[in-house]
Structure formats: C-alpha cells, structure tokens
Amino acid sequence: MYNILEKIKNDNQRLTIILGTGFHLQGIGNNSILSNWAVLLSKLSHADLLTGKYTLDFEKTIINQTKNQNLSPLKQAHEIEKDELKQIAHLIKKEQEWILSQKNRFKYPDVFNPKYVSDVISLNFDHVAEELCKLRYGNDEKVVFNNESIFSKKYPKNSRSSIYQRTSYRKITDSQGNLIRFWYPHGSFQNHQSITLGINRYAQLVSDVIRIRNNYKSIEKQCINCETDNLTWYKQILKNPVLILGASLSDVEWGLWSALVFKKRNCAKPNCKSFENNVYKMVDVKAEDKNLGYWYEPLYKNMDFNEQWITLEELLTDGNHA
C-alpha cells in the first residue's frame, strides 16, 4: 500500500472509498449511535437481548413491538417498521447535529481530499463524512442529490424508487475544481424510507445491485471502449482502486459483496487487463481475516487502527492537516 498514491498520480486515477462505522469509532469512540449498532438499536422499543446479528435483531424488535401493542387500532408489522425507521432517522439527525456543533472536540480523520478521492460509498445513514469534507474542501455550493445513471431516464427526478435513490449521489467541488461524490446505497437519514435495515430491505438492496450491474454490462457491450453517462457507485468500484475504511464487510453485506465479486470476475481471465485495480482494506492486525489476500489486500501491515488512520490522513492531505 506504500506506493498506492504514487500509482494514482502516475495513472491519473483517484480512489473510491467504502466507508463504515469505524470512521465514527475513530472520531468519537464506541458509545455513539453512529459508531455502535447495538447502541442505535437499543434506542428502539423492545430491543432487548441483542445478539450482534443486527439485521435479525431489528426484525426481532419489529416483531416484539407488533406482538406487544396495546393501542387501537392495531398496526401491522410493516407500519411499525416505518415508524421505527422514522425514529432512527430522527435520532441520527440529532446525533449528527450535535457532532458537527462540537466537531473540534473530536478526532475525525481527514481522508476525503477531492484531489485524490473521487467517490465515497458510505454504508452509514448519516452525512457526517460529507459535512466534514464540505467544511474542509467545499466552495459553499449547495449539496443536493444528483442522478446521472441510466435510471434517471426511467424515473422522475428525486423518485422514491429504491434503485433511483441507490444510484443518486451528493457532490462537493474543491477550489481546484476537483469533484468528490458521496453515495448512500444503504439509505440516508434525510429519507427514513430509504434506510436499509431488516431482511426485506437487504434483499431489495441485492436485487437493486444486480439491476445496476446488468445495466452496466449491457451498456458496456454496446460501447466497450467509451465512457457512458451511466454513472453509479458500482461503476466507480470497478473503475478505481478501492479503499475499505472502517467497514467489517460482514456476511449480510451481500449488496457490497456482489459489487466486489463482479469486480474480481471482470479481470479474472488471463488476458484481461481492464479493471485490475486492487481493493485495499483496513484490517485488525490482531484478528484473523480469511478474506484477506484474495478479495482485498491489507491497507497497512503491522499497524493498529489508530496508526492506519493517521498514516492515511498524512498520505491523502500531503501532510497538510486542517
């Protein structure tokens, strides 16, 4: 990983970052609803006996609430789920506001330099990373959702369709004209209905990723050697070197795993030279990771997480911290 920045500069490439809750763990510790799933789910009614399998834990919470209703009229489980997602969005909004109001107290890494990073695929529901990037590098432009995928031609602007929302991004442009996009395929607190928790919503995420991939392959076959207007986070995973930061990539992340597997498949043939950019991941040096060395390479070796964040920040800011 020591020469990845040199490679990016020489090849005129930039990075795609996949961002998880470890970003918040580094910034504010383990007791926030943004850094700890257990803390977030504990805020919901009947969220007892959490197991750490948070997709199923969320489902148990919804089922327990449905069983224990005592108000009339009784609600169905999907109605209670919508209420809980609205509550989660509200809690995240308040937590984000509090963090940003006291941002100087915290130690969030500065790793979103548009000079070197073109895309951030956030697995989080909040926009803290985006807001910090805007404060550090932005030029006061209003940040809104945009969509330049093939689905923008199939759905109206700002459609509530899950696939339209998953292929929409928010952009920030620095003073040199470098643009960085923030994607939220798991949903955003700004629209509680987009938040991906529970079995049905994760299943829909995988279905949407397959549709995104199939459209990408269809366009690629029609125009093999040219850029298309089908801009998606999936394309940016295939196109760029990828850094996985603060994300464990558990077995339930089938949407993201689908994209990483397709990236690997695209360059599997011996004579294939396209999309061979590697995937790098922050790893716990004290824990075994059976996916390491095949699906991704270690971002750094023999460093704890704190050292890795600090070293990466040095790399991506050219040593010029805010």
What this model shows, in words?
This protein has 322 residues and is an alpha/beta fold. The chain has two domains: 4-34 and 108-316, no CATH class; 37-97, no CATH class. It is 40% helix and 10% strand. It has helices at 4-10, 22-28, 37-42, 54-67, 77-101, 128-137, 162-166, 199-222, 233-239, 254-266, 305-316; strands at residues 15-19, 117-122, 145-146, 169-173, 179-183, 242-245, 279-281, 297-298. An eight-stranded mixed beta sheet has the order 3-4-5-2-1-6-7-8, with helices on both faces. Helix 10 (254-266) links the parallel strand 6 (242-245) and strand 7 (279-281). Helix 4 (54-67) packs across helix 5 and helix 8 (199-222) runs parallel beside helix 10 (254-266). The protein is globular, with a radius of gyration of 20 Å. The chain starts with a helix and ends in a 6-residue tail after the last helix. 36% of the residues are buried.
User: What characterizes the major β-sheet?
Assistant: 8 strands, mixed
Share of residues in helices: 40-55%
The parts where pLDDT drops under 50 for at least 5 residues are none
User: Tell me, what's the shape?
Assistant: globular
Span between N and C termini?
24 Å
- Rg, rounded, reads 20 Å
Query: How many helical elements?
Result: 11
Instruction: Look at the helices and sheets and give the structural class.
Output: alpha/beta
Q: Strand tally, please?
A: 8
Enumerate the strands of the largest sheet in spatial order, edge to edge or round the barrel.
3-4-5-2-1-6-7-8
Average pLDDT metric: 88
Number of domains in the coordinates?
A: 2
Percent of residues in beta strands: 5-15%
Order of helices and strands: HEHHHHEHEHEEHHEHEEH
